[in-house]
C-alpha cells in the first residue's frame, strides 16, 4: 500500500539485529533517556527557583535544557517501543514528523549555542553595557526569532520530502528518521533537494559556527589585553562549559556528516547515536559540574525537595 508517491511505512534497522542484545539495548537507552530528562529538568527547575540565576546566560541555558529534552524525546521513545514490541516499522507520517522535529531541535540548539556565545562576548568585551544590551526583551526576542526561523525552514524541508518517491518497505539504516536518511533512500531525482539541503546546511550551520568563532576571537583578544591573570581566568571560566558543549555538539554533528560516506552501517549508527543521545545526556552534567552557581542552585533545590520525599 502506498500513500501518494510514498510507501506507507519505513523500516528502522536500529543498532543491532541480534536478539540477545535487544534487552541490553532497551535497558541502556531507557536509562540514558531517564537520566537525560531528569538532568535537564533539574537544570530548568534550578534556574527557575534561584533568583541569582535569573540572568541572560541561565535563561539561555534553561532553554537549551528544554531543547535537549525534546531532542532525545523525539527519537529514543520510538526506538524503545520498537525494541519492546520486536518491530522495526514506523509509519510514513510518524517518520516525517520525527524528521521535522529532529531538524527543528537540532537547528534550535545550533542557534542557542550561537546566542550564548554572543552573550559571553557582550559580558566580557562590553561589561559596562551588558545589562543594557542583553535586556530581558532582547533575550526573549532572540529565542523567539530562532524558533520562528527554524520552524519555517524545517517545514520547507519536509514539504520537499513529501514530493519524493520511496519504495514499499524502504529500510533506513538508523534508529530514527532524519532528513539526510530520507534523502538517501528516496528513489526519485534528488538534485533540487540536495542543493537546498546544502544551502540550508551552510545558512544554518556554517553561519552560526562562524558567529561562535568570531565571538570567541573577540573574547580571547579582550582577555589578552587584561593585565590581571586572575581576571583573565575568572572571565574565561564562564565560557568553559559553553565551549565544552559547543565542541561536543559540532564534533558529533561533523562526525554524522563525515560518516555519511562510510559504508559500514553500524559505524554510522553509533556516530548518529552520539549526536542524538549522548549530547543531550552530557550537557546538564557539563554545566552542573563546571558551574558553581548551578551546583549551588541544584543543591538548594534538592535539599528543599528532600524533606518532602
Fold blueprint:
Layout: E1 2-3, E2 6-7, E3 9-12, H1 22-49, H2 56-73, H3 76-85, E4 89-91, H4 92-125, H5 130-133, H6 136-162, E5 170-172, H7 179-185, H8 191-225, H9 229-259, H10 265-290, H11 292-305
Parallel strand pairs: 3-5
Antiparallel strand pairs: 1-2, 3-4
Spatial strand order of the main sheet: 4-3-5
**Percentage of residues in DSSP E strands:** under 5%
Q: What percent of residues adopt helix (DSSP H or I)? A: over 70%
CATH homologous superfamily label? Rhodopsin 7-helix transmembrane proteins
Mean pLDDT, to the nearest integer, reads: 82
Number of domains in the coordinates? Answer: 1
Q: Give me the count of strands.
A: 5
Which residues form runs of ≥5 with pLDDT under 50? 1-5
Describe the largest sheet: 3 strands, mixed
CATH domain fold name: Rhopdopsin 7-helix transmembrane proteins
Helices and strands: which structural class? mainly alpha
Intertermini distance: 52 Å
Return the CATH architecture. Answer: Up-down Bundle
Structure description:
The chain has 309 residues and is mostly helical. The protein has one domain (2-308): Rhodopsin 7-helix transmembrane proteins (Rhopdopsin 7-helix transmembrane proteins), CATH 1.20.1070. It is built from eleven helices and five strands, in the order βββαααβαααβααααα. The chain has helices spanning 22-49, 56-73, 76-85, 92-125, 130-133, 136-162, 179-185, 191-225, 229-259, 265-290, 292-305, and strands spanning 2-3, 6-7, 9-12, 89-91, 170-172. It has a three-stranded mixed beta sheet with strand order 4-3-5. A two-stranded antiparallel ribbon has the order 1-2. The longest helix is centred in the last third of the chain and has 35 residues, at 191-225. It is globular and about 65 Å long. The protein starts with a strand and ends with a helix. Residues 1-5 have low confidence and may be disordered.
Amino acid at each position: 500500500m502506498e500513500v501518494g508517491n510514498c510507501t506507507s511505512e519505513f523500516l528502522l534497522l536500529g543498532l543491532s539485529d541480534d536478539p540477545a542484545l535487544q534487552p541490553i539495548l532497551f535497558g541502556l537507552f531507557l536509562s540514558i533517556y531517564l537520566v537525560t530528562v531528569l538532568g535537564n529538568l533539574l537544570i530548568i527547575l534550578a534556574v527557575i527557583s534561584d533568583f541569582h540565576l535569573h540572568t541572560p546566560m541561565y535563561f539561555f541555558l534553561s532553554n537549551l535544557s528544554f531543547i535537549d529534552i525534546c531532542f532525545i524525546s523525539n527519537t529514543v521513545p520510538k526506538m524503545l517501543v520498537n525494541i519492546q514490541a520486536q518491530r522495526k516499522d514506523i509509519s510514513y507520517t510518524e517518520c516525517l514528523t520525527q524528521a521535522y522535529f529532529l531538524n527543528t531541535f537540532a537547528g534550535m540548539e545550533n542557534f542557542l549555542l550561537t546566542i550564548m556565545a554572543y552573550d559571553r562576548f557582550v559580558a566580557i568585551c562590553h561589561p559596562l553595557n551588558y545589562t543594557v544590551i542583553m535586556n530581558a526583551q532582547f533575550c526573549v526576542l532572540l529565542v523567539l526569532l530562532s524558533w520562528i526561523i527554524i520552524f519555517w525552514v524545517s517545514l520547507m524541508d519536509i514539504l520537499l520530502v513529501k514530493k519524493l518517491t520511496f519504495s514499499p518497505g524502504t529500510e533506513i539504516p538508523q534508529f530514527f528518521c532524519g532528513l539526510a536518511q530520507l534523502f538517501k533512500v528516496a528513489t526519485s531525482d534528488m538534485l533540487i533537494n540536495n542543493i537546498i539541503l546544502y544551502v540550508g546546511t551552510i545558512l544554518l550551520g556554517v553561519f552560526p559556527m562562524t558567529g561562535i568563532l568570531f565571538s570567541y576571537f573577540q573574547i580571547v583578544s579582550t582577555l589578552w589585553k587584561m593585565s590581571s591573570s586572575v581576571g583573565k581566568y575568572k572571565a574565561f571560566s564562564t565560557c568553559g562549559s559553553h565551549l565544552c558543549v559547543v565542541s561536543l555538539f559540532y564534533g558529533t554533528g561533523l562526525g554524522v556528516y563525515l560518516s555519511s560516506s562510510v559504508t559500514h552501517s553500524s559505524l554510522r549508527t553509533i556516530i548518529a547515536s552520539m549526536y542524538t543521545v549522548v549530547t543531550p545526556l552530557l550537557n546538564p552534567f557539563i554545566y552542573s559540574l563546571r558551574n558553581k552557581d548551578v551546583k549551588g542552585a541544584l543543591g538548594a533545590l534538592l535539599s528543599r525537595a528532600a524533606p518532602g520525599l
